[in-house]
User: What shape does this take?
Amino acid sequence: MLYLIGLGLNDEEDLSLKAINVMKKCSEVYCELYTGIWHGDIKKLEKMVEKKMVILERREVEDNSLLEKAKKRNVALLIPGDPLTATTHIEFLIEAKKMKIDVEIIHSSSIFTAVAETGLQLYKFGRTASLPWSEKNYKPESFYDIIEENYKQGLHTLILLDTAKEGMNVKNALKILIEIENKRKKNIISKERIVVCSALGSKKKIIKYGNVKVIQKINFNKPSVIIIPGKLNFKEEEALQLWGIQK
Assistant: This one.
């Protein structure tokens, strides 16, 4: 049996009682920390479940060796946030079914639902955009296409920032977005007020709503996400005022 267990948004205290009990009965417990930023303490977690944790790199997760182990014994893989928000883990379900291995999912808190704390209604979010670091010969702009398409339809856009290289911060991300917007001669991000959320699910949480020039002056914790609001209804407008900052 293979268990895919969500670590939640912040630290080991986000784990459910069900998740802890499952880990205690597993023969081996593994953890990957490359698909998201997690602020927990592995040593504390090991004491909680009385098991040694093995941290896996991407290649070790994707080579199907965990599935081979799960054929013979109970194995758990811990994943930041909810276990199925990263598309790579859907492959486990597909491959496990082919190999006739049972898989149980233990869900946890995720950024995809936590952003509802802003007051923006989840059903009004369009496609999610991921904003990667630019490289010398790789400067993608597809995330801006998603923002523009969602905006035309009146939908909100959740922008996930690259977690590589110790994680992209909000100032870096907004700089990239504004550069692309100026290049394309668009006026979405510059014109509208935006929302930034950081460290949701923790006591260091920050949520701010304002124009880009003011938002850029704030130092946000990691991980952070940016939201480009679409068409707001009166309840969303009222809720966002809770996080509003002066222009």
Notes: The chain has a mean pLDDT of 91.
